[in-house]
Amino acid sequence: MRNFKVLGLIAPLLASACAVGPNYERPKTPVATAEPFVTKGAGFDPVAQLPDDWWRLYRDPALDALIERAFVANTDLRVAAANLARARAVLGEARSARLPSTDLNGGVTYGDGVQGAGQAGTPGNPGDAQWSQFGGLSLAWEVDLFGRVSRAITAARADTEAVEAARDAVRVTVAAETTRAYVNACAYAYAIEVARQSFKTSSDSLRLVTDQERAGSVGKLDVERAGAAAATARSAIPALEGQRQVALFELAALIGTTPGDIPEAAQSCSQAPEPATNIPVGDGAALLRRRPDLRQAERQLAADTARIGVAMADLYPQVSLGSSGNFFRDDIVRGGDSFSFSLGPLISWSFPNIAVARARVRQAQAQGDASLATFDGRVLNALKEVEQALTIVATEQDRLQSLREAQLRAGEAHRLADLRYRAGSIAYLDVLVAQADMLSARSAYADSVQRLASARVDLFKALGGGWQHNQETEQADATH
């Protein structure tokens, strides 16, 4: 009866229980983030939003297959998935703190019992043996009076969501880097073909001048100049072949295979694919919603805010409700069965460590401030990365257009110089100069093709698309 009176006294406390610590509020972003991006340029669509599977804008089935394979076999994604599974297990552990803890014990003993009254035992004739049984069950449940448990669950849930966002960021990186490795391999294959054509042109000129020297119409100097030009053209090929192999090996690692098992489609690609439509870039508001690294920082801030409440709750008593029951039975003594039961609260308050608890509160508050600064920094960094990528793509597109014209004009100049040389109106040095200009324009054009292809991937990566792939399956997994 006394225990029930105690419960009546603490009932008002339970009814008025509240979580200590700050309630989380999502941080505000600059108003300017809702506006269109500053950088403009041909080939950008500022209205349309980036599709989830942006790599399909290239309309290249080989690229689509490579990314699907990377999403399945990439080792970084496997690590991220394992980290997410661990975070979900930690969340489950935090949630279990709401459940009561139990302790069950029991046993059976057999041995000499106590002699009955007036019955003296004789040597060698011990008292009668007896069986004894005992058991006990205790339950304890922490009353979340100051929100320590609920704040801990909130922090664990936000941690899980932050790890999930980190996994999504890895997906963005895998999609982008797989695309980059593929388009680089294709672009370098095109550059190798250009370099081989340049070497062929230089070799043809060398053979022509060599024949003319044998005929006595030109001197040794012209032959050496032509030979030097041919050797220079040939020297560009090994470096480009090496860069192409590096890109292919990078691709192999991204899709989870060995360097000797590179897909044939990637090895046979000879020209970098281009998006079939203008690149949809949207605006800053859509960017902030899409970028998983921003979501990760925001969820980390939420977790650290909840941990302030956990630390503050340690400044207050911990209240637990407990009950226990015990049973004992003696086979010898009639009526020897006994049963006891208790119910009541247990209050725990660590007075000697209050200074430690206050220090932990200050630590949690400082961590929250750091997480807020991290979020603000990532917002600015996301906007910076997109603007930089837009600028590089726009300027490289202009450069490529100019180099396309330069290549055509240099080719025509070389053709005219060759005709005049054959007609005897100019010296061979003029032909070599025109040829060098043409080969340089070809090389610069091929280099610009590769730079533009890689810059577009940087833009897609900065825009943050690709993590939504197979999202429904991931959400289903999260419920188990």
Automatic annotation (TrEMBL):
It is a lipid-anchor. InterPro entries: MdtP/NodT-like (IPR010131), OMP_efflux (IPR003423). Pfam families: OEP. Gene3D superfamilies: Outer membrane efflux proteins (OEP). The keyword Transmembrane applies. It is found in: Cell membrane. Keywords: Lipoprotein, Membrane, Palmitate, Transmembrane, Transmembrane beta strand. It comes from the Bacteria. GO terms for molecular function: efflux transmembrane transporter activity. One of its GO terms (cellular component) is plasma membrane. The keyword S-adenosyl-L-methionine does not apply. Belongs to the outer membrane factor (OMF) (TC 1.B.17) family. This is NodT family efflux transporter outer membrane factor (OMF) lipoprotein. It comes from Rhizorhapis suberifaciens (corky root of lettuce). The lineage of its organism: Bacteria, Pseudomonadati, Pseudomonadota, Alphaproteobacteria, Sphingomonadales.
